[in-house]
């Protein structure tokens, strides 16, 4: 559900359901962002949603009754490549391999979205291109995240790693 909270004339808060968004799975994390992929200068209301699926769905909250995400990052490929003797899923290039546990949009580098996963990786996505820019593989366990401005903090069982978002855009894939 997309709910609106507004302040009434008497100062009391008022909350109402504006519309519903049909998610593919139970949401584990969300990150609101105003970056518009179609026009980076024009702001909008978007929400990135991470679920038990390795897909990150980006929903346009300004569109009422939308039935599909505005766009998707990663996920399972619909094209099936059958390799003899191997079972399993084929993932889109740059995709997580397990649940997305944390999402963080950066207000300094507006086209950057960071995601943390149960696959022990952190990915930084370029929203303009709709692809994974860098994969950070420095964790021994599932990764969850917290952000503050241009810093990205990732926490797993044995590690706490702090990255500066501007440096990530300069690094080769890790």
TrEMBL record:
One of its GO terms (cellular component) is nucleus. WD repeats lie at residues 93-135. SUPFAM superfamilies: WD40 repeat-like. One of its GO terms (biological process) is rRNA processing. PROSITE patterns: WD_REPEATS_1 (PS00678), WD_REPEATS_2 (PS50082), WD_REPEATS_REGION (PS50294). Keywords: Phosphoprotein, Repeat, WD repeat. The keyword Phosphoprotein applies. This is Uncharacterized protein. InterPro entries: PWP1 (IPR044285), WD40/YVTN_repeat-like_dom_sf (IPR015943), WD40_repeat_CS (IPR019775), WD40_repeat_dom_sf (IPR036322), WD40_rpt (IPR001680). Pfam families: WD40.
């Amino acid at each position: 559900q997309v709910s609106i909270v507004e302040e009434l004339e008497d100062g009391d808060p008022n909350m109402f359901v504006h519309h519903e968004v049909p998610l593919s799975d139970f949401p584990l994390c969300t990150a609101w962002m105003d970056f518009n992929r179609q026009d980076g200068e024009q702001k909008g209301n978007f929400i990135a949603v991470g679920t038990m699926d390795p897909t990150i769905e980006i929903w346009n909250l300004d569109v009422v009754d939308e039935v599909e995400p505005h766009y998707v990052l990663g996920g399972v490929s619909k094209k099936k490549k059958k390799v003899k003797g191997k079972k399993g899923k084929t993932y889109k290039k740059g995709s997580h391999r397990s649940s997305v546990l944390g999402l963080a949009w950066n207000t300094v580098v507006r086209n950057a979205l960071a995601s943390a996963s149960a696959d022990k990786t952190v990915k930084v996505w370029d929203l303009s291109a709709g692809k994974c820019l860098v994969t950070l593989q420095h964790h021994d366990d599932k990764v969850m995240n917290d952000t503050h401005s241009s810093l990205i903090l990732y926490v797993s069982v044995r590690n706490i790693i702090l990255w500066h978002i501007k440096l990530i855009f300069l690094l080769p894939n890790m």
